[in-house]
Amino acid sequence: xxxxxxxxxxxxxxxxxxxxxxxxxxxxxxxxxxxxxxxxxxxxxxxxxxxxxxxxxxxxxxxxxxxxxxxxxxxxxxxxxxxxxxxxxxxxxxxxxxxxxxxxxxxxxxxxxxxxxxxxxxxxxxxxxxxxxxxxxxxxxxxxxxxxxxxxxxxxxxxxxxxxxxxxxxxxxxxxxxxxxxxxxxxxxxxxxxxxxxxxxxxxxxxxxxxxxxxxxxxxxxxxx
Length: 225
Ligand SMILES: Cc1cc2nc3c(=O)[nH]c(=O)nc-3n(C[C@H](O)[C@H](O)[C@H](O)COP(=O)(O)O)c2cc1C
Fold this sequence. Notes:
This protein is an alpha+beta fold.
């Protein structure tokens, strides 16, 4: 490649870089990050995340989850799970936990430190005002996913006899139950976000912002990546 070619190529790369920077979504305020999240939730593809929790022995646990909703006004993020799952036990014990979202198209990692509330059947029985929000979340789940909530408590040893019983139970759960009310075990996990750590891994200098919720609203700071 001669000098003229190299210069042309460098110019092209520069132009593409500028175009990408112009197209890149703004992340310098918490409101901008909520907008990015809202847009992602509007797309066909599910938004996957890793949820980290702390167990009773102080150890860290992480697993994949589907982000079921975000509410920019309430500053909340929603997940769902079986209320017998370990993550739910952990969140009841240590309600402050981080969920990490990777948005491949945006080349963006969004870490949301949140305060979690578990809304299962027992909670809505005590607080009927929360029935609607849990019901709306249930309605969003596919039939196949709903069926999972009719499983017995997760993390119990499963031998051949237990597996047969589980299959029978699944057959009996049937469409009627799935289409009406969520079982008691269906837990909506609502995280009120108190800190965002947002990293865009594009360009030669990665962009990282910390947005922290204080008494006077969100405070934002760009930090070294
Ligand atoms: C792509 C993917 C998405 C998942 N989404 C969820 C989810 O939304 N909720 C959930 O409880 N488990 C989900 N799981 C299963 C969890 O990762 C985990 O294995 C299970 O919930 C048990 O976790 P726990 O024992 O730590 O509670 C998902 C797994 C994968 C691979």
